[in-house]
Design brief:
single chain, mainly alpha, 16 helices, 283 residues
Length: 283
């Protein structure tokens, strides 16, 4: 896709047309967000505004049709691109993105236009087992609608945040491929949360739980997950291992929950132990 990025960066009209067209096409919003992120990373926020607006307008139209995911993704990628360009630290960028995503969850931006009530009614009519489960929750004093709203918002928010991180990574890889070959690989392999950043994330999540705000707790583990993925990439790169190891890793990550927990634990240990640094010194 690097030739596409090269064409986009020839001028603002090309980037505007590409961002608008990609965001307008269903399921290609991530490409429009990545184009806006690339221009933001390369030129800064003000010069990139026409491209961002070009991506946001069709995304806003999708919002009027009941789908907020494209617009939320464009805004998140742009915000994280601004932070990454300014701070040059992936860890801080991911934390900011997770916090903004948590705010979107708390504001209920990812709920269906009519709320979850009609959805629950349809599921109740379609499945007697689901109806009996809702009745059981009601007998236990649990508000099924509130629980469903929290679950729906949290899952959608996670998908938006992960898609936005992937879009930003694509934009950064384009930027490196065009202007700094190999730079993204080196940058991503070095991604690691500091103990201070981890402490800030834990404090925010705990405060959110105490205040009855599930958004921060649902979103703030994503930076740690991305840090664990970067750790795996870094170790495989340091050891010169075959790329098939990465393929197997992603298959396990996508298909098995225990692998996600292992990656999170590895990233947590790496925060204090600097595993890649130890491997490098041993080599």
């Amino acid at each position: 896709m690097l030739p596409v990025a090269r064409w986009m960066m020839r001028g603002t009209p090309q980037a505007v047309a590409g961002a608008a067209a990609a965001t307008l096409v269903p399921w290609l919003f991530w490409l429009g967000a990545a184009i806006a992120g690339l221009v933001t990373l390369r030129r800064g926020l003000s010069p990139a505004l026409p491209v961002i607006i070009a991506a946001a307008v069709p995304a806003g139209w999708w919002w009027t049709q009941g789908d907020v995911i494209p617009l939320a993704s464009v805004l998140l990628v742009t915000l994280m691109a601004v932070v990454l360009r300014s701070r040059m630290r992936w860890s801080e960028t991911l934390i900011v993105g997770a916090l903004v995503g948590a705010g979107m969850v708390q504001l209920g931006l990812f709920l269906p236009p009519g709320g979850v009530g009609p959805v629950l009614d349809q599921l109740r009519q379609a499945s007697p087992e689901f109806a009996s489960m809702l009745d059981e929750l009601a007998r236990e004093g649990i508000a099924a609608e509130d629980l469903a709203a929290m679950t729906f918002s949290g899952v959608t928010g996670l998908l938006v945040l992960l898609a936005s991180v992937a879009g930003l990574a694509l934009a950064r890889s384009w930027q490196a491929g065009l202007y700094n070959p190999g730079g993204f690989r080196e940058e991503f392999h070095a991604l690691r949360l500091t103990p201070r950043e981890l402490l800030v994330m834990v404090v925010i999540a705990v405060v959110g739980i105490l205040l009855g705000l599930p958004g921060p707790g649902a979103m703030l583990w994503v930076p740690l997950l991305v840090g664990g993925i970067a750790l795996v990439h870094g170790v495989i790169g340091l050891k010169g291992m075959n790329g098939l190891w990465l393929v197997a890793f992603y298959v396990l990550l996508i298909t098995t929950w225990p692998m996600i927990l292992i990656v999170l634990l590895a990233a947590l240990i790496d925060t204090f132990a600097d595993i890649r640094g130890r491997f490098g010194r041993s080599d």
